[in-house]
Design a protein that fits this description.
The protein is built from three helices and no strands. By secondary structure, it is an all-alpha fold. Helix 1 runs antiparallel to helix 2 and helix 2 packs antiparallel against helix 3. The chain is elongated.
Length: 91
């Protein structure tokens, strides 16, 4: 698959991931949070997903990193899950 196609795919996936997390948070988490907590959570999500996206762009040129990409994705999702649980427990 050409690199520009992979970059577009990564961009689409990043937007979908952020939208999915934020949709869930707004529905399930935000009612129990102050506006400041909502803003902080949104920042954490954007930072975490943005960092992961940057790593994926950095390793895009290497085609034999499927295992690394999968491990990174799982770690990111676990981190987001843990942050959601911590934020919920704190409220």
């Amino acid at each position: 698959m050409p690199e520009d196609t992979l970059r577009r795919l990564l961009d689409v996936q990043r937007r979908r991931l952020v939208a999915s997390i934020m949709s869930h948070a707004e529905r399930e988490l935000y009612p129990d949070l102050t506006e400041a907590q909502q803003k902080a959570f949104r920042g954490k999500v954007l930072t975490a997903v943005g960092s992961y996206h940057d790593v994926m762009l950095d390793i895009l040129g290497t085609r034999d990193t499927t295992e690394l990409i999968n491990v990174e994705a799982i770690e990111l999702l676990r981190d987001v899950r843990d942050r959601l649980a911590a934020d919920r427990a704190a409220s």
